[in-house]
Amino acid sequence: MLAFIIKRTINAIFVMLSVTFLAFIIFQFVGDPVRQMLNEQATQAQRDALRDKLGLNDPFLVQFGKFVGNAVQGDFGVSFRNQQDVMTMIADRFPATFELVLVATFISIVVGMPLGVLTAIRRRSWYAESLQFVSIIGISLPSFVVGIGLILVFSVWLGWFPAFGRGDTVDIGWWSTGLLTSSGRMALFLPALSLSLFQITLVMRLVRAEMLEVLRADFIKFARARGIPARVVHFRHALRNTLMPVVTMTAMQFGGLIAFALVTETVFQWPGMGLLFIQAVTFVDVPIMAAYLCVVAFIFVFLNAVVDMTYAIIDPRLRGSEQ
To answer: Quick check: 265 and 100 in contact, CB under 8 A?
Structure first.
């Protein structure tokens, strides 16, 4: 088991270095940060001095080595636009993004799993077929279209929920949350629902496929032969054996939701990391863009490693196959 953990850790480090290297290369061609930081009246001497201060005149490998060394310490420098510490800005925005993704994941599980079970045990009914058709639409529609549609219906026409913003928040130490205020919960509902719709369809279709497979198993036939009620067979025996793939997919999609929440955050002007990244792209704020990609990549790699190690703990055969 120790060898398995060491190998997964080395793989994770290699992936992080690869992502960091690619991000660093890409951002070398997005524009001149000196032009963004100084006004047009700045002299050439001032520009040269700033380039020396930022280390932009150093060789490429030297710049990359400094970047990696600082990133390991959680130092991504100062924002070119706001002149603030980048990690401080991301830490201020992270609670909003995490809260949005957490609620979206909760909605997807609470809604998607029962729908998946329903479409599996009533797969020939008209409403199961209708849900399947709706799930295809849910997967196909872009998230910005869904978000704009929700704003049009629930904010403009009905006026039930706010169209943008986070509402009132409460600070608990360095963490800010809107779940403890009514306006915060109202503001959270629409963006969380918009972000969760794609996830709901994935959970529903995965649970349906796994349930159909489990319902054909011999132990389910034996349970029915013993006269166990259908409700117990479906929800205690069959559903429990479908949870592992669902948990795995949910854990993997959690990182994906954090990465792709930027579209939802932009539509709803949600003050999270995604909106900060979009603003950084607009103003060619390279430190923020690099820090965002590294943070998202770390979340992906961490969740991957946790899932792999959890599987290895549950199934010892996986540990043997890696040796």
So the answer is: yes
